[in-house]
Design goal:
Number of strands of chain A: 22
Structural class of chain A: alpha+beta
Biased composition (Basic and acidic residues) (chain B): 292-304
CATH class of the largest domain in chain B: Alpha Beta
Helix content of chain B: 25-40%
Number of domains of chain B: 2
Radius of gyration of chain A: 27 Å
Shape of chain B: elongated
CATH topology of the domain at 399-549 in chain A: Barwin-like endoglucanases
Keywords (chain B): 4Fe-4S, Cell membrane, Electron transport, Iron, Iron-sulfur, Membrane, Metal-binding, Repeat, Transmembrane, Transport
Structural class of chain B: alpha+beta
Largest sheet of chain A: 6 strands, mixed, barrel
Largest sheet of chain B: 4 strands, mixed
Domain 4Fe-4S ferredoxin-type (chain B): 29-59, 91-123, 124-153
Strand order of the largest sheet of chain A: 15-21-16-18-17-22
Shape of chain A: globular
Helix content of chain A: 10-25%
Number of helices of chain A: 11
CATH class of the domain at 399-549 in chain A: Mainly Beta
GO molecular function (chain B): 4 iron, 4 sulfur cluster binding; metal ion binding
CATH architecture of the largest domain in chain B: 2-Layer Sandwich
Largest interface: A-B, 26 and 25 residues
GO cellular component, one term (chain B): plasma membrane
Strand content of chain B: 15-25%
Number of helices of chain B: 8
Oligomer: heterodimer
Strand content of chain A: 15-25%
Strand order of the largest sheet of chain B: 9-2-11-10
């Protein structure tokens, strides 16, 4: 579900663009249930205070005035002096985000910064002079920094969601060191104090904060299981099954499936796709039965997958129009004459006959998969080749529009793009198997396995530039420079781009100035700040640099 | 390692007799490293450090993916990376997990002069018994694979134990457990040879005509074996010996000088024995006694 934008001044206005009706007769178009999910969310947030009379407290939701307040936008606003405070939870933007110089500059303009992390992150120490790897002028920085140590996953109960959509419960294995507190404890403390201030001092609009439902056993540190149950959702009144006219679900019962959610205020659910994760049968995320009945990587009783414990989305498409599996050796679901059966939960009406012609892509209004996305892609509907914002060549297809015209670029960032004249080589960034992002450099063993920052340069370029194996180099972009050792490798060969040999430099990302590994500049010192037209993911992966041989830095 | 399995020895350094094995039969074990499945993630190195409580120093980048830079008293296994361009001009990144090969005929054990400092168990594992090690470094010279390293702290020699403590209680070595691609396997030597055979057929069918098993007979076979895509050229894999040999000095010591010395001692005893048989025992006569007394007296007079 989406946050409303400020043009959507009423619930009906908001719903108009959400509740997709079937485009062809008989199609599922599951988003026609949007209102049920939305009202159940409002009930989870505000309980009795969200009622039919106040449009389920629609007016209490914040409304966006721009399409997106993401991290690219946030740092631009800091840099422009439009954002004074930043709460940075489990995120290390000084390492992880492009154009490190801009990130440091932006953080320096804040009034306050709160960091919440189990690790001593670079972001928490952006203000400290660590030499060339973080040349901060502490005396000139007025940002007040609150560094709050948090528990890590092994020090608390909770669930982790992986990219296969499994919610896997985990159990606390050890007490947290020092003063570390759970994120829940910290966020709750913040909420309780803010609410107290609203209660005492009023303010422009205290209702959404004062009206928030907060019925936890410990109002200062809600139990993760209680929160999970709230996400799952409950019946708020007895739910009557219209078919039999009997009470199917008693008031207070945890719900089994999002199909039970209603738009009349009789159900609540903090996140409709999670309904079913914690039911009256217990914590489904804590299941640990690894049985894989068909030996095809589907273990239906291991943890719980959103939505509905469905392991493969749109699995109706695994069977032909008659309901027979396309690959009989690997059946996922099939039609047995009266219903859909198989190892997975059907992503389809469980008794909808194949002959009814309902398309398998039930979230789409037409029921079909899409080769071209009508109105969903920023640069659609047809695929097109664009060069990266920084590229050694012009787009041979259309030089006048070389790069994506709808990529999100702020004017200051555009000014810091380099040209191939000064930065003739292509660089890309990547991870190594020895490290996980910027976390494991804090772990001694991982630090031993890859202790120090380096870049990878092909033999041809190394020869041309007189760079020796393991010798020191300076890699620079328009935005900054990295001085480190070079690994001269056969693995990178010059590419022929538009008829010209083009050298590529590989920049592994893992080193910073905190932790156990040796100090590094960080690959994102070099990268440009560009938001992809659709995902808004920064364009880390292709940019221009120069490389020169240099002397070893003074020890 | 400490001496936990002394009843299972089949070989013991600097000892001609090994204790008889009172316990039941044990299978020969082996670790099989399928180099063609390795992704070079170093999870094995990490697991080795964790299990054996090894914490080498944080080093530097030294112009290679290899870290630490070499095996050491606290680096018992090390991924070695070689960039090889094949005949077709394609790049192959040959990554090999280096460490003790647990030779059936261990050069280190042969060379070791400290009784019981190096032992071989019935399952084939070659283990260093640290409290008996005298730090002489002969094992380093004796090893055909350049594996043992002497600690500067305690002057003892260290290398991979094949997790003999884990294996003794029915667990696989730590590196085997940690490997995410199944490139490291562990079991009876016969099973591992069988496993390797199947994999080699598969590799051959994929165009690696020279795929094969590295189980060098020069050292009587090893209890750590490799599946190599280029078994005809083991040295491509960061200098894995094409034909590992125990140094001639060790062979000279064990094969010639030591037996010669022992023979010398035996000969001297034998000569004495025959002298006793033929000439009888040395006896002191009355004249000898009187002569001795006289020499003693003259000495005393000179002093006074």
């Amino acid at each position: 579900m989406n946050l409303p934008v400020d043009k959507e001044t009423s619930l009906d206005e908001y719903m108009r663009t959400k509740q997709f009706k079937p485009l062809r007769p008989g199609q599922t178009s599951y988003w026609q249930n949007y209102r049920k999910f939305f009202v159940s969310l409002q009930k989870a947030l505000w309980g009795d205070a969200a009622s039919k009379d106040n449009d389920w407290a629609y007016d209490w939701l914040p409304k966006l005035d721009v399409p997106l307040y993401d991290v690219i936008k946030a740092f631009e606003m800091m840099d422009q002096g439009q954002m004074g405070g930043y709460i940075c939870q489990g995120f290390n933007p000084l390492q992880a985000f492009p154009d490190r110089g801009k990130i440091r500059r932006s953080l320096s303009k804040l009034k306050f910064l709160v960091t919440m992390d189990p690790l001593d992150t670079e972001t928490s120490r952006f203000w400290q002079d660590f030499g060339p790897q973080n040349p901060a002028k502490s005396a000139e920085i007025q940002t007040e920094v609150f560094q709050l140590p948090t528990t890590c996953f092994a020090e608390e109960n909770g669930s982790l969601v992986n990219s296969a959509r499994w919610l896997q419960w985990h159990w606390k294995a050890a007490d947290a060191p020092g003063d570390a507190k759970s994120d829940i404890w910290i966020m709750t403390g913040l909420f309780q104090r803010l609410r107290e201030l609203y209660r005492k001092e009023g303010g422009a609009f205290p209702d959404p904060v004062l009206g928030l439902t907060w019925k936890y056993t410990d109002p200062h540190e809600p139990d993760p299981e209680e929160l999970a149950k709230e996400m799952n959702g409950r019946a708020l009144t007895d739910l009557v099954d219209p078919a039999t006219d009997t009470v199917a679900t008693k008031a207070g019962t945890l719900l089994d499936a999002f199909a039970q959610l209603r738009d009349d205020g009789s159900t609540s659910s903090g996140c409709w796709i999670f309904t079913g994760c914690f039911t009256e049968k217990g914590n489904q995320m804590a299941r640990r039965d690894a049985t894989d009945p068909r030996e095809q990587g589907i273990a239906p009783n291991w943890a719980w997958a959103w939505p509905a414990n469905r392991r493969i989305l749109y699995n109706r498409a695994s069977a032909d129009p008659d309901g027979k599996p396309w690959n009989p050796a690997k059946p996922v679901i099939s039609w047995n004459g009266s219903k859909w059966v198989g190892v997975d939960v059907p992503d389809y009406g469980p008794t909808v006959k194949p002959s009814d012609g309902v398309g398998p892509f039930i979230m789409n209004a037409e029921g079909m998969g899409r080769l071209f996305a009508r109105d969903m892609m920023g640069d659609g509907p047809f695929p097109e080749h664009y060069e990266p914002l920084e590229s050694p060549v012009e787009n041979v297809l259309h030089p006048k529009v070389s790069s994506n015209p709808v990529a999100r670029v702020f004017p200051n960032d555009r000014a810091s793009f380099g040209s191939p004249k000064n930065f003739p080589y292509v660089a890309t960034t990547y991870r190594l198997t020895e490290h996980f992002h910027y976390w494991t450099k804090h772990a001694l063993i991982n630090a031993v396995l890859q202790p120090e920052e380096f870049v990878e340069i092909g033999e041809a370029l190394a020869k041309e530039k007189g760079i020796e194996q393991g010798g020191w180099v300076k890699v620079s972009s328009k935005r900054g420079e990295v001085i480190c050792k070079a690994y001269v490798t056969k693995r990178i060969k010059p590419m022929t781009v538009d008829g010209k040999p083009t050298h590529v430099i590989g920049v592994p990302i893992h080193w910073g100035f905190t932790g156990q590994a040796r100090k590094g500049y960080g690959a994102n010192t070099l990268t440009p700040s560009v938001g992809d037209a659709n995902t808004q993911t920064p364009e880390f992966k292709a940019f221009l640099v120069n490389v020169e041989r240099t002397a070893a830095p003074a020890a | 390692m400490s001496d936990l399995q002394s009843q299972d020895y089949v070989r013991r350094s600097a000892t001609t007799m090994t204790p008889p094995m009172a316990r039941s039969h044990e299978d020969q074990v082996a670790k099989l490293i399928d180099v063609s499945r390795c992704i070079g993630c170093k999870a094995c190195q990490s697991a080795c450090m964790e299990w054996n409580d090894l914490r080498p120093e944080i080093g530097h980048f030294e112009g290679s993916y290899e870290n630490p830079a070499d095996l050491g008293p606290s680096v018992w296994t090390l991924m070695k990376f070689a960039e090889h361009e094949n005949e077709q001009g394609n790049l192959e990144w040959l990554i090999r997990k280096d460490g003790c090969m647990h030779c059936e005929d261990p050069g280190c054990l042969k060379a070791c002069p400290a009784p019981g400092a190096i032992v071989q168990y019935a399952n084939g594992i070659v283990d260093f018994i640290s409290d008996k090690c005298i730090g002489c470094g002969y094992c380093v010279k004796g090893c055909p694979f350049n594996i043992p390293r002497i600690s500067k702290q305690d002057h003892k020699s260290y290398k991979c134990t094949l997790c003999s403590d884990r294996v003794a209680v029915g667990l696989e070595p730590a590196c085997v457990k940690a490997c995410p691609t199944g490139a490291i396997m562990f079991g009876s030597k016969a099973d591992m040879q069988h496993q390797a055979k199947e994999r080699i057929v598969e590799l051959k069918s994929r165009g690696f005509d020279n795929a094969g098993l590295y189980d060098p007979q020069e050292v009587g076979g090893t209890h750590v074996m490799y599946v190599l895509h280029h078994a005809d050229r083991p040295s491509l894999y960061s200098g894995l010996p094409d034909k590992p040999r125990i140094s001639a000095t060790v062979d000279l010591w064990k094969g010639f000088i030591k037996p010669l010395g022992l023979a010398g001692i035996a000969l001297a005893a034998l000569a004495g024995f025959f002298h006793w048989i033929s000439a009888g025992p040395n006896e002191v006569t009355e004249e000898d006694e009187a002569e001795g007394e006289r020499v003693l007296r003259e000495g005393e007079e000179k002093v006074s």
